[in-house]
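User: Show me sequence and structure for the first protein, then do the same for the second.

Assistant: Starting with the first protein.
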Amino acid sequence: MYLGRVVGCVWATVKSPALEGMRMLVVQPLTPDLQNTGKPIICADTMGAGAGETVYWVRGKEASFPFLPAEPPTDTTIVGIVDSIHLKSGLGHGPAPPRQNSQAGHAARQKRGKAKPC
């Protein structure tokens, strides 16, 4: 699994019939300390993630598993929304403070049962 941040949405009027009704998001891959790494990617969304949220995603054959028994042609899929990250500092200064995902987004998602829109 990999960390990423949702940075946008994708609308496609022409696509594989297996992708009909599937939400697609633009995700910026992140390092464990939440720094951008690599180029943004397109992920299928199974969690209802919203813009700015930190997510974890999978790639390869596992990307189709959340949709079983269907096997859509997806290479990357968001499989979780991160609430917080706790990192140990490698410099001997003790653990780093936890990094929280957007509190407003988390509270809104709990209240409405879904993430903020892209």
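Switching to the second protein now.
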Amino acid sequence: MMWEVFSNYIGDKKVYRVGRRLRANEPLHSGNVEYTGELTDDKDAAEALAKELNEKEAAE
């Protein structure tokens, strides 16, 4: 599964976190996502982390 950026609102602030779905045949819900890194309000940083993780796994 590919790493991607998920977003959510905490209060009125939009935050981002990198994660990937664990089981493709199940609906997307919190128990079906593996997260890495911290919550951030920096979407560009989250996208860069997702890209880095996907490139690393593709090279393995």
